[in-house]
Specification:
InterPro entries: DisA/LigA_HHH, FAAP24, PND, RuvA_2-like. The protein is 49% helix and 16% strand. By secondary structure, it is an alpha/beta fold. It has two domains: 153 residues, Rossmann fold, CATH 3.40.50; 48 residues, 5' to 3' exonuclease, C-terminal subdomain (DNA polymerase, domain 1, Orthogonal Bundle), CATH 1.10.150. Strands 1-3-2-4-5-6-7 form a seven-stranded mixed beta sheet, with helices on both faces. Helix 4 links the parallel strand 6 and strand 7. Helix 6 packs across helix 7 and helix 9 crosses helix 10. It is globular and about 50 Å long. The termini are far apart.
Length: 215
């Protein structure tokens, strides 16, 4: 379902109903938007500013396309402005292709190390749409869970962090959970000394993680 919103939207003040996604007007007609249709309630708004997609629970998506990476540093200024001006949970999705791969390390250092945000590499808009759908569904399920139904489910932003950590070479779901349990956030993980990583996952995997994050 795709509609046009009839209310103003400003970063930081928007309240998105569960099961809905508010998308920047520039994505109307894109492959990503087409794949979201029928899976979530998609509303377009032309006043989102820096944000590409707003989800519920104060979570938003900033998407860096292959074209953005090749074009220059404007996407970096956009991310810095967002981080400085917004209290929203920002998840940065970067389109990592054969062409854009050469820029990925610089993006990773900026997003994770300098800005302390979640970074998820995706091969294409189809993968990005699947992540957004997953986050929306998790948010809706979390909302319906009662306070006495056992252990609290991971929040959507936490689920995205877990997925991001699992993309590090040598790290599966079990090790990702151990790392997040020990360091608490992906930002602290990325700034951990190698001996701290070794205490969590052993010398071999620790070296792989450290090399991936700092090479």
């Amino acid at each position: 379902m795709t509609t046009k919103a009839n209310f103003p939207v400003t970063a930081g003040s928007i309240v998105v109903p569960y099961g809905h996604v508010i998308g920047n007007e520039k994505w109307r007609g894109s492959e990503l938007a087409q794949r979201l249709q029928g899976k979530v309630r998609l509303i377009f708004e032309d006043a989102l500013g820096l944000v590409d997609f707003h989800l519920s629970n104060r979570t938003c998506i900033l998407l860096i396309s292959e074209a953005d990476l090749v074009a220059g540093d404007e996407f970096k200024r956009r991310l810095v402005r967002f981080r400085n001006a917004s209290s929203l949970r920002g998840i940065v999705i970067v389109e990592k292709t054969q062409i854009s791969d050469q820029y990925y390390l610089g993006v990773q250092k900026l997003v994770v190390l300098e800005l302390g945000m979640v970074l998820l590499p995706m091969a294409n808009q189809g993968e990005a749409s699947q992540l957004i759908i997953q986050l929306v569904r998790e948010q809706s399920r979390d909302r319906g869970a009662g306070p006495f139904l056992g252990k609290r489910r991971a929040q959507p932003a936490e689920a995205a962090v877990l997925q991001a950590v699992q993309r590090i070479p040598g790290v599966g779901k079990t090790k990702a959970l151990l790392l997040l349990q020990r360091f608490g956030s992906i930002h602290r993980l990325c700034n951990a000394a190698i001996h701290e990583l070794e205490q969590a996952v052993g010398q071999t995997v620790a070296q792989q993680i450290y090399t991936f994050l700092h090479s």
